[in-house]
Amino acid sequence: MDRIPTREGLYRRGVQVTSTECVLYRSKEESSKHLFIECVYAQRVWSICQRWLGTTLVQHNKIKNHFESFHCSQASVKQNQVWKGIWAAVVRCIWDQRNIILFKQGVVDVEEIFQMTQLKSWSWLKHRTRSFSYSFVDWISRHLYKEFEIIWNEWQRGMYKVQKQG
Prior knowledge:
The chain is mostly helical and 166 residues long. It has helices spanning 7-12, 32-38, 40-53, 63-68, 77-104, 110-128, 136-141, 144-156.
């Protein structure tokens, strides 16, 4: 993630930038860690996303650990692809909003970032995962963790086989 051209990253590479402050919050240096995890606005997006998913996740202070927290050991590989797709969509939508603010004089809109996350994750998964069968309305109105909970209960009763990851 340090390859992303954040203001701090560009400055570190010797590129002249007017400021290294976070475009969204304007109080800290804009590193990828700050932009996607530490920034108050990013934290709000993650919080809304957790409510939508119907779960609570540990807030890690490293991007790799944060990404790895979007893994459900009781779920199949395909189901974990959904979780990872949601994580990638959140990060992408935060980045897109940052660019709108920086290059088009936009304003921070946490709800818009979240809604775009729902749309982008649904679109990506619909076109990249054969077994993905949600309509957009179903996708945005579900607590996805509840579905994993059902799978977990079935697995405990021996009704569902989970593929082991190697």
